Amino acid sequence: MFDIIVNFKAYREGYGNHGRELLKNLCNLKKEGYQVSFAVPFTELYLSREFKGIISQHVDPYSTGAHTGSILMEQLIEYGINASLLNHSERRLNRDIILESIKFSESLNFKLYICSESLSETIFLCENGAKYVAYEPPELIGGDVSVSTSKPDIIRESSDICKSYGTKLLVGAGVKNSSDVSISRTLGAEGILVSSGIVKSKSPEDSLNSLMI
């Protein structure tokens, strides 16, 4: 199964009535061999009661209790959400927090897509039990040049490392078309992260559909 994660970030198109309409349209798109998930803002997580495939953009490694402002795995599970992004380049975490999150997620069978900015960070995550690593060079995020085009060697190296640990590799940053997906798959990636190319597209449904080659 090839993973496609659409990150709504905090774009105006991704919350409120706009976000609900976007989810309504995108959730109808399905193709055999692909699993599409939508990382929505925390204010929209309640929509998991209505739409399938919703995941969180962030989660904290705490159990229930006095943790004001935190997003807990147990809270998300209560809403039928069993996965989250973590350590995105726009919300980087220190390594102790990442290690706590991995350990706690295992106890709850909760899925973490942990973002990595480099080959060395990918190795660290794999060595410490990450099941899913999402490689995203920060300098390419939101740009027009895809990671598959500009850094194919690192994708291949990351894929080899991840496979040796039984970890699934996703790639992101600048991924916008079927060619980017095709190259990423050829290099060993088992999923992609996309954002503005879908959320801010004039036709999000067509843009997402074009990635499922």
Describe the overall structure.
The structure is a single chain. The model has no long low-confidence stretch (mean pLDDT 93). It is globular, with a radius of gyration of 16 Å. The chain has a single domain, classed as Alpha-Beta Barrel (TIM Barrel). By secondary structure, the protein is α/β, with parallel strands linked by helices. It is built from nine helices and eight strands. Helices cover 37% and strands 18% of the residues. α4 runs parallel beside α6 (152-165). β7 (168-172), α7 (178-186) and β8 (191-194) form a beta-alpha-beta unit.
Features:
213 residues; 8 strands; 37% helix; globular; TIM Barrel; alpha/beta; 9 helices; 18% strand; 8-stranded parallel beta sheet
Short description:
The chain has 213 residues and is of the alpha/beta class. It has helices at 16-26, 73-78, 95-108, 119-127, 147-150, 152-165, 178-186, 196-199, 204-211, and strands at 2-7, 34-40, 54-56, 83-86, 111-116, 132-135, 168-172, 191-194. α7 links the parallel β7 and β8 (191-194).
List strands and helices in order, with pairings.
Elements: E1 2-7, H1 16-26, E2 34-40, E3 54-56, H2 73-78, E4 83-86, H3 95-108, E5 111-116, H4 119-127, E6 132-135, H5 147-150, H6 152-165, E7 168-172, H7 178-186, E8 191-194, H8 196-199, H9 204-211
Parallel strand pairs: 1-2, 1-8, 2-3, 4-5, 5-6, 6-7, 7-8
